[in-house]
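seq:
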Amino acid sequence: MAQNAGIPERCTLEHPLFGALGEIWFRRAEGDATPMLTLSLGDRQAALPLRSLQAEFGITNESSDGRMLGLIAGALDFVACLRPGDRLPAEIRTGEASWEPEPRHFALAAARVKLQLTAWLGKGNADQIEADPQMLLTLADDPAMRHHLQEALTRAARVLGLDGPDAVLGQVQELAGELGYVEALRERLLRPAEAMAGMLQRIGRRRLDPAHIETITQVHRLARQGLKGIGARFDELDAQTGEVMAALQNLARQKRFIRGHRDWLHRSLRAWEPILSAWAALDPTDSDRLWTLAARTYQFLAPRFMSVTEWQSNFRPRAARRSEMNW
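struct:
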């Protein structure tokens, strides 16, 4: 895809200030993720929010530097750090992804779309499409299913007004090329988040002292709330793209829809990944590590998913709180 009109390829800033500061880089603050300009001051670092920087030096949003600072803030959703001269991530420049799934994710997406197309023909069913990944790949490679796919491609060409089956297959591959990212995120984000929630649930069923019961209950509840939001994104993607003929008829719009959800999920993955990896590596019989990780997970989840009222209630004495176990 060609570079979007008006969006530079690289991070470039014109104000003399940026050259006078020496080595600078942009990142998000660890606490509230505010976009920051960071620079070295001897053996220390100083950081200034980009909004404060604009106000202090009169950089308007409409100026070239103001527009670039806005792009930088958006770019930090996809990269941890950006320096002057660095290429802006592809998500900002073209809408494409700056990361790559593995080939099997594209293969799985293609298998899913092809089976949806044969189901549209009446030669498959939803249970097959919801099958586990290996089963999907096996079904898509079945000789009978390949024959049904050719029938479906021929009929779809007539419905879509395309030249023939090859033209439809090209659109199927284009759609699968977008959905391969979704399959990668399903594996890397959704499944580990489900596994973490499951582990928390099992730990909560143990005989624990009241303090540990309260901790694991809160962590599990917040994890489920986060998982609900993640799962809703995948449900929406699956529902929107599951009607394969409607998706192929509006392919450009579908690609924009998929990419918007893809980027949201990838931002979530970047935030969740350290916690999910730690739970995946945890030996649940290691009590010290378990409760250290539970506390760390609470610190990660609470600012994101706990209401203001809940935050306030946590300042009450523990005896005044009602512990709830709702597994």
